[in-house]
Structure formats: C-alpha cells, structure tokens
Amino acid sequence: MSFIFLGNALWLDFVNTQIIDGELVDLIGGGDAFMQWARAADIPADEHATHGFDAALTETRLFREQLRAAANDLSAGTALNPAFIADINRRMADHPVATVLEKSGSGWATRSMPVTEGPERVLADIASDFARFVATEDTNVRKCSNERCCIMFYDTSKNHTRRWCSMEACGNRAKAAGRRARVAQ
Fold first, then answer.
1. How far apart are CA 19 and CA 3, in angstroms?
2. What mean pLDDT is predicted for residues 127-136?
3. Backbone angles phi and psi of 40, in degrees to 5
4. What pTM was computed for the model?
5. Residues 87, 41 contacting (CB under 8 angstroms)
6. Residue 63: its pLDDT value, please?
7. Cα–Cα distance between 14 and 57 in angstroms, integer?
8. What is the pLDDT of residue 175?
9. Do 58 and 122 form a contact (C-beta atoms < 8 A)?
C-alpha cells in the first residue's frame, strides 16, 4: 500500500490518510492498513496486535476528523476547539512517552520510547506531534490549491508561498492546465 507523506508533520500525514480526488479514499480502511501506515510513519506497531488495530478503527477515524478540523482551523487562523485540546492532553497522559539519552556518533541524542503499545499508543504519538507542532511551529498549515485535492501540509517554504501538495502531482497538473488554456486562446 502506498501512503502519502507530504504534510511535513506526522499529524498532518495522518490527516492525509483520507484523500479526495474525485472520490473519497481511506488509506487506513482496516486494522492491517492502519498498522502498515504506523510502521511507514516510523511509529513502532506490534504486528501481533492486528485485532487491536481493527477494534480501534472507529476511534482512529474520529480522531482523524478532529485533526482535519484542527488543520482547517489553523489554516484559517481560528481558535482551536477546547474540547479537542482536552482530548489531545488526555491521549498524551494516558499513553506517556519516556525520553532516553543515547550515545550518537561522537555526541548524544535523545530518543522517545513508548510506555504503552498498540493503536492507542500510535494515536498518542500523533497527539504528541500535534501538541509539539502547535506549541513550537508557526502555523502555516495549508490545503493544496487543487480543488479536487484535500492534502493538508505545513508550508516550510522560505516565503511561505507553497500552494500544492507536491509539484509532481497537483502542481504539474495546474501548470499543464494553464498552458493548455493559454494555447487554446
């Protein structure tokens, strides 16, 4: 299965597991796909916990909808829903992450280690990424300018002028359509 990692933030990549290109496509339609996405996103997921991932799909989809709403709020510059922030804090408290100091080359580095496992831990990692993002990043969250695309991304371009989820996909399509329109005139 091919997942989309264009969001420049884990939580936005999770939001982008539901895409629209003429029709709605859920890239994590089952527990196995959710577990595969977690692994692709470098979140350890116990392969023996497939049933747990299947059981957590309703909660997973609801959380993804809440994150999409938060992305839209950040993009529009509106306040985040206080109930959603309480849910983020609950997820992080229920599934804490321990930080470990390790030797790295000639220096030191920290690494996060989960205290719990399973789908709830994956959602807690996503919640932690959202919390870190909101607390430390400027909130240049954008939606792709292609009206048929719903990919959300964090605009890290120098002038914060990125318009497309990727130039290879939507950007090239828009440029080709513009070129065709100019030639037709």
1. 10
2. 93
3. -65, -30
4. 0.84
5. no
6. 97
7. 13
8. 66
9. no
Cβ–Cβ under 8 Å, residues 27 and 18: yes
Residues 173, 121: Cα–Cα separation, whole Å: 38
Bridge partners (DSSP) of residue 18 are 26
Nearest-angstrom CA–CA distance, 173 and 167: 8
Work out the percent of the chain whose per-residue pLDDT is above 70.
Answer: 89
Tokens of 128: 């932690």
> What is the chain's mean pLDDT, rounded?
87
* CA gap 68, 18 in Å, rounded: 10
Contact yes or no for 141/154 (Cβ under 8 A): yes
The two three-digit tokens of residue 146, written as one number: 């292609």
Q: Per residue in 137-158, pLDDT tens?
A: 777 999 999 888 889 999 999 9
Q: Please give the radius of gyration of the chain, using alpha carbons only, rounded to the nearest integer.
A: 18
Closest C-alpha to 122, from 101, 94, 141, 80: 94
**Amino acid at the residue 130:** F
β-strand partners of 86: none
Max Cα-Cα span within the chain: 63
Helix, strand, coil distribution of the chain in percent, nearest 5: 50, 15, 35
- Asked whether the CA dihedral 61, 133, 92, 69 is positive or negative, the reply is negative
The whole-number pLDDT of residue 86 equals 97
CB-based contact 10:129 (threshold 8 Å): yes
3-state secondary structure of 112: strand
